[in-house]
């Protein structure tokens, strides 16, 4: 049990902190339009730690000009809160904000076991509840089970390239040589240092990333899933971070870490549930084929370089592919579409991304940093043409670094777009 006076003191300090926020300086995020203010559903924002979930909620609530109460459960003084303490928290909220408050923002509430029952009770009293969390299974799984659809889920990633440019005041519309050069430099900085909001103006990016990774591994995974072999989890995490855009070879990992296949799969799943990695499955109408050959991508490119002993290859093509995939997740989740990759057999040429709307293929996307070499151009375009015929989709896109044009290959029109143009669209 946590003393009521302690809870009240924490809430008072948090209220004072929120009062000092200047939302006009904050970057506008696409996800702001996804909130349903007048809905009876809980507004649930989930995503990796430090992606800006709290800022997003504060921003939309302040700009909507509604009175709201705020409780941040990611506070060491509230670490021992139990389910029975949540009613005391609510009492303190009413004492501090008044009993007529109609909006309540609960930040990182998954730290308290049984939190979903509390939220369910609040919804029955017709409170408008905003919730954030950093663990997909704890939120999505428990919400689906206990709130039975009474929630609006909003997924948030670190800054997109467009938001990165907005933060750094990069001219995204200028047509001068200087403006174009500035955008290209910003892009190279972005695929190296990433889009975590708090990291943007830090000189010691390595220290920030290492502390962030440790918080994800220890708080979001080890503590939640009672993992004993933390060092193995840490090594698997760094292995996947160092090798993005690749199929996860469970047989190889089993041999390297001397662990069972089941344990390795479980650890990889935990990393996914904490949003550290995002998984991409193969496009197939057979469920077993979708399970095999899953690829792992990083939630943000800044995780790759800014670590101790980060001996990674300077493969800009993979970095670009990773950025494109995360951007696709941003766009497709808003439109309730799914993303896969296409490689029916080992003999077939691979297409990086297949965008589907319920079972219908809407777009085929290939990513290649440099297509100047005839061999590279032929490989990438022929893969698109072959997949187009197999999946009956003529909406073909090839994302390259610095050129935009249309080409016709074997009777199929392929739209080539520069990465900057596509990312800023």
Largest sheet geometry: 6 strands, mixed
Mean pLDDT: 92
Compute the number of helices. 16
Total strands: the figure is 14
Oligomer: single chain
Strand content: 15-25%
Helix content: 40-55%
The separation of the N and C termini measures 51 Å
Model regions low in confidence, pLDDT < 50 over at least 5 residues: none
Could you tell me the radius of gyration in angstroms? 23 Å
Order of strands across the main sheet? 9-10-11-12-14-13
What string, H for helix and E for strand, traces the elements in order?
HEHEHEHEHEHHHHEHHEHEHHEEEHEEEH
What is the 3D form? globular
Give your account of this protein's structure.
There is one protein chain. With 425 residues, this protein is of the alpha/beta class. The chain has helices at residues 4-19, 53-63, 86-97, 115-124, 136-146, 161-167, 177-193, 205-225, 230-242, 250-257, 261-273, 287-291, 302-305, 316-334, 374-391, 419-424; strands spanning 42-46, 68-72, 103-107, 128-133, 151-155, 246-247, 277-280, 295-298, 338-342, 351-357, 360-367, 396-400, 405-409, 412-418. It has a six-stranded mixed beta sheet with strand order 9-10-11-12-14-13. A five-stranded parallel beta sheet has the order 2-3-4-1-5, sandwiched between helices. It has a three-stranded antiparallel beta sheet with strand order 6-8-7. Helix 1 (4-19) packs across helix 3 (86-97). The protein starts with a helix and ends with a helix. The model has no long low-confidence stretch (mean pLDDT 92).
